[in-house]
Amino acid sequence: MNAIDKTLSSDISLGLLLEALAASRDLPLVFRYDGRPVKPGYHVTEVKAGQFSALDCGANPEAWAEIFVQLWDIEEGDRTHMPAGKFAAIVRKVSEHVQLDSSAKLTFEVSDGVEPMQLYCAATPVVGDHAVHIELVPRAASCKPRDRWLAEQRQSTSCCGSSNSEKCCG
Predict the structure, then answer these.
(1) Same-domain check for residues 133 and 157
(2) What is the total count of domains within the chain?
(3) What angle do CA 118, 83, 49 make, to 5 degrees?
(4) pLDDT digits 0-9 by tens, 70-102
(5) Burial of 96 (0-12, 13-18, 19+ CB in 10 A)
(6) From 157's CA, which of 76, 138, 165, 166 has a CA 20 to 30 Å away?
């Protein structure tokens, strides 16, 4: 199985997820979180879309779309992990009734029905061991003004260090 680089590939959109699953429709879809795979009987219990407006800690207005996929991590009889195509069909069914923005931020809510629900973002799916594997990474809190500043610093550093430095820094 290919290794998953969490630093480069976590936090994909719903559109990218469905695009990646299209080529592997018949393979089992195995989500991993907290160092273990979901149980073979897991259910997609909800897919919901939200439009959010907020004021961040720097008093900047923020607005974004987010799609939540709720996974119920249970063992149920002799079920196996659902095929990637079934997951895509569930999302398509939801999209008949709920407006889903394929570029929206994607958040997974996972619980076993006993422990509290936890929030995760998804890494890029990886095909290996006759299954599609998706690593779910805990969604951490962040400071948007700091995140923007860090992104600007990275952009400035990468731009000024390149052969195009006259265009960027001149």
Answers:
(1) no
(2) 2
(3) 45
(4) 999 998 888 899 999 999 999 999 999 999 999
(5) exposed
(6) 138
